[in-house]
C-alpha cells in the first residue's frame, strides 16, 4: 500500500510540473505575438502588425499585461497611419478606443492609454479634448517621463502654430511656459543623463523665444535647480554660462545651479569658462582695432561712433565681470586643484621644440617632398610611354 501511495504522489507531482510548463509556454507564445507585432510596427509594416495582434484573441486565456500591450500597439499603428485614413475610419477607430474596458488595468497603464488617445485626438484637430486628456493622464501618473514629454510636445506644437500666425511681439507665451515646465518634469523623471538630452535640448530651444519680461527664463530658473540633478547638466555647461551672462540681473537661482555643478564636477565648468574668458578678451582687442580703423576712416560721424563704442564696451565689461566672478567662485571652492591646473597649463604653453627636433622635422618634410616628387615623375613617364605605344599600334598597318 505504501509503495502505491508513493507512486501516486510521484505521478501527481509530474503532472503538476507538466501543466505549469504548459502555462508558461502559453504565456511565452502570447508575449512573442506582441513583440512580433511591435517589431512589425517599427518596420512600418502596419498591416502585418494588426493581423498578428488580432491572433491573441484566439487563445483561451490572455493575461492583462498582454491585452494592454496589444491595445497600445494598435493605437500606435493608427497614429502612424493617420495620413492614409478617411474621416469615417478615424471615427470608427475613436469608437474602438473609447470602447476599451479600462477597469482591469493599473493606473499607470490607463494613463498611458489615455495619452495615446489624446495624441489621436490631436491629429483629428480636437485640441481641447486632447489637452484635457493629457492633463488627466498626468494626474493619474505624475512620475512618468513619457506622459510629461507627450504633453510638452503638444504644447510646443501649439506654441509654434500660434507663433507662425502672429508677429513676434504679440506671441502668447503661456503655452511655452507650460511646455517648459513639462519638459523639466520629463527630464527629472527619466533614468539617466543620456535620456534627458532630448528634453534639455528642447528647453534651450524654447528659451530662445523668450520675451522682454523674461517669463520663460524665470520659469526655467525656478524649476531647474529643484527638478533636474546636477549630473545631467554637464553636457550643457556652455549653454548655462551664456544664459547666466545674458541674464546677470535675474540669475540668482541659476548661479546656485552652477555652484552645485562646480562643487561636484569642477573641471567640467573650469575649461569652458577659461576658453570663454580668453575668447572675450580676444574679441575685445579685435573690436578696439576695428574701432580705431573706423574712426580714422570716418571722422565726420563722431557722436554716433562714440555712442556705439560706449554700448559695446559696457556689454563686454559685463560679460568679463560675470566670467571673472564665476572663476573666482571656482578658485574659492577648489583652490589647490585650480592652482595645479594653471601650473600645468603654463608649463604646456612654455614647451617648445629644441633645435635638433626642428631639424629632424625639416628633414622629414623634405624627405616626404622628395618621395612625392619621384612618384609623380615616374607616373608621368609611364603615362607618356603608354600613350606613345598606343600611337605606334594605331599607326602600324596590318600585313596583307
Automatic annotation (TrEMBL):
GO biological-process terms attached to the record: DNA repair; regulation of DNA-templated transcription
InterPro entries with a match to the protein in the record: DDR_Repair_Kinase (IPR050517), PIK-rel_kinase_FAT (IPR003151), PIK_FAT (IPR014009)
Domain FAT as annotated: residue spans: 1-279
GO cellular component annotations of the record: NuA4 histone acetyltransferase complex; nucleus; SAGA complex
Domain of life, per lineage: Eukaryota
Protein's UniProt name: Transformation transcription domain-associated
